[in-house]
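queue> pop job 88
queue> type: inverse folding (structure -> sequence)
queue> payload:
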């Protein structure tokens, strides 16, 4: 909890200022950014809809926070939107009003980009601040297994089988949402926007998907994603040299889908009615928080804390999520990395910076093994 406010503030601004290179990449930058934003929004929506169908947590209402009534947000959208903007950012921080902090951070990030050269020293300071917060988060994560063991043992003992069944449905909803992305979202996008064969695409990127799933870190998978983009997809370095590092930092489709699922799961557990306004809020948070997710193992646990805090919900669900994360992270990271490569292939193809002979070649490049 201590880290949530400064972590959000620093990492979000730092993420936005990384887009600085966009100016020099104009059409490429615009295209990939649009793709990343749109696909994350769609991913979060698909996650939310899947969870609304499966309804994980519905049979365990009130189990996590017995006796505490959590206020459903039933204001109209315009009022709601206005209340996202802080009158006083310091007050927003002291009260832990996450939506206001997120909006303020986005504005500061955009302002720093507009400042250009003059903003460099502050950008450096903010990047250092983000690094510091991530290191402290890692300290916390080191002790997390013991804390999680104690909390989950306590929870299972006091809640029993009912909760476990709901947790099972939550994992199913999460993985079904990821499956929908892989089977029903990416193939039509590749075909329609990139005029590329989805089967060949998946065969070509399989090594990167495997590394993503086994390391559960987009950052650690980056070298293999690059090798795959160059050697198997035939995309020019001009494209992947920009889109892949950017994607590994800001484009997290798997996490965006998970945010949709977690938001519904938490609302059900805490007995919050899911109104259309709340759904829009989930989608907005899915987009923004997936951008703020670092490409490292377990980053999504902290982001889930920010999500619950933003939705005004208690953090009692976090130990449960943390205990499940090693299983969930495999799927999330695989989709995070696949999403980056789908965007890279589509943009490469649209800019005619893809070698179709390499893409369609029956043989996979051996250079991947060397790299
Ligand atoms: N482990 C994920 C990644 O590196 C981030 C997350 O926790 O969702 O892509």
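queue> result:
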């Amino acid at each position: 909890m201590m880290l949530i406010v400064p972590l959000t503030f620093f990492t979000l601004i730092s993420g936005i200022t990384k887009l600085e290179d966009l100016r020099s990449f104009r059409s490429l930058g615009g295209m990939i950014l649009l793709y990343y934003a749109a696909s994350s929004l769609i991913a979060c929506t698909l996650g939310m809809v899947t969870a609304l169908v499966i309804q994980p947590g519905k049979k365990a209402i009130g189990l996590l926070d017995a006796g505490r009534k959590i206020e459903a947000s039933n204001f109209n959208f315009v009022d709601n939107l206005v209340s996202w903007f802080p009158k006083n950012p310091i007050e927003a921080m002291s009260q832990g009003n996450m939506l206001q902090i997120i909006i303020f951070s986005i504005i500061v990030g955009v302002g720093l980009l507009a400042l250009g050269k003059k903003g460099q020293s502050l950008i450096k300071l903010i990047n250092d601040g983000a690094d510091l917060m991530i290191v402290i988060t890692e300290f916390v994560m080191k002790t997390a297994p013991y804390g999680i063991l104690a909390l989950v043992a306590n929870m299972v003992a006091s809640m029993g089988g009912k909760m476990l069944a709901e947790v099972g449905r939550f994992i199913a909803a999460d993985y079904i949402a990821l499956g929908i992305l892989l089977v029903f979202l990416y193939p039509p996008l590749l075909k329609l926007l990139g005029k590329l064969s989805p089967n060949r695409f998946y065969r070509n990127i399989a090594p990167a998907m495997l590394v993503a799933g086994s390391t559960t870190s987009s950052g650690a998978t980056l070298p293999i994603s690059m090798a795959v983009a160059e050697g198997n997809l035939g995309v020019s370095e001009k494209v992947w040299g920009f889109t892949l590092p950017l994607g590994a930092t800001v484009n997290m489709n798997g996490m965006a889908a998970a945010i949709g699922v977690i938001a519904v799961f938490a609302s059900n557990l805490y007995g919050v009615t899911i109104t259309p306004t709340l759904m829009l809020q989930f989608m907005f948070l899915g987009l923004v928080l997936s951008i703020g997710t670092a490409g490292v193992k377990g980053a999504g646990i902290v982001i889930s804390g920010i999500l619950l805090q933003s939705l005004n919900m208690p953090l009692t669900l976090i130990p449960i999520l943390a205990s499940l994360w090693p299983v969930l992270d495999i799927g999330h990271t695989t989709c995070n990395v696949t999403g980056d490569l789908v965007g890279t292939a589509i943009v490469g193809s649209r800019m005619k910076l893809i070698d179709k002979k390499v893409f369609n070649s029956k043989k996979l490049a051996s250079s991947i093994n060397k790299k």
